[in-house]
Specification:
The complex is a heterodimer of chains A (about 130) and B (about 280). With about 130 residues, chain A is mainly alpha-helical. Chain A has four helices and no strands. Chain B is built from eleven helices and no strands. In chain B, helix 4 crosses helix 7 and helix 7 runs antiparallel to helix 8. The chains are: A mainly alpha (about 130), B mainly alpha (about 280).
Amino acid sequence: MTAPATVGAGSRAARAARMDRRIARVLRVGTLVSVGLLAIGVAMMAVTGRSPLDGTWPALDPARIPADLLALRPEGFLWLGLLTTLSTPLLRVVAAVVGFLGAGERRMAGLGTAVLIVIALAVIVARRTAT
Amino acid sequence: MTVLLLLAAGGFGAGIFGSLLGLGGGILIVPLLTFGFGLPFREAVGVSLVCVIMTSSAAAGVYLERHLANLRLGMLLEVFTASGALVGGLVAFLLPERVLAGLFAILLACTGFTMARRGAAAARNGAGPVEPVEGSADDPEVSGAFRAALGGPGYRPARLGVGIGGSVFAGLVSALLGVGGGIVKVPLMHVVMGVPLKVATATSNLMIGVTGAASAIVYLLRGGIDPLVVGPTAAGVFAGAMVGSRVAQRIDLRLLRLLFVAVMGLTAIQMALRALG
């Protein structure tokens, strides 16, 4: 009588382990990409003699990032690295939501979605209250 | 060029010490940037948040692969840490910097005290300073099946209501002071909710990324994060944390911990003086 339950628990544990590994990969790749981009940006700052503490810094304009990257300007790499850093934990949540939905765990998927809603709210509120 | 190298070296130092002592880098980065480089407190917090998100992502990947972090419990609590962080990020722009410095001084004093206690406990044959509550304590408002799903081998988290309230507070602290908030979350999960210490530490680390992102987005969109400072500092912190995690087993941490408690005490006094004007 206990065998099916054991098999069920075993497959659930295996599924959870697979999901942990998948999410770990998302985090590792995200971290490496963001560190790489920031490191390139820092190297370019050194080459161009740009000081980090001159009191002014380039405003965030996502539309300008591709042009800055192509022109090998440090700010393009730094902004992209910074945005990748902030996006990595959010991609982790998206990966978890997808995994939980695939496993039929709707309550956990709902929690992940709630996290993403809070982040979306942060973007909206910050934009509205920005001077 | 010199400032660039100094920022990277400072970040490296914060990363290596933070990693050796089991702290997020935030508690070191904010004083480094404010006292060492003259950055306004709020700018230092913005930079620090990016650094702690980066180190958290790197460490959380390892914790998940080793199945130490509890993803389900982390996702439940981070709904509330992120909500607290969103509010904290907004409040940070309303409070005078002197108030923030005062709060940071209190945080430094608490961290120093905790570290000194941990050191004393370790000296007594590694005994933990506190005993957790029984993990399967009754929590009538939460269904048993759901709580069981949030648990792991040998434990079920207790007192979810308190855990949720404490998570909001941890998010607030993180957003106001630019730290990971482990000083709140780890005792909350371990002592109050009965989660094993290793799991609590790993899960707290996993949650830092989302918590930090919620407030860092507010700082970023309100113009509070300087990418030119983030670059060298974050790269340095990451490199330092990597080195620290590799040499941790070969270093006698007792002297380092003592030294660190002293440094933290002095920094707390400096922060308190700044708060008092």
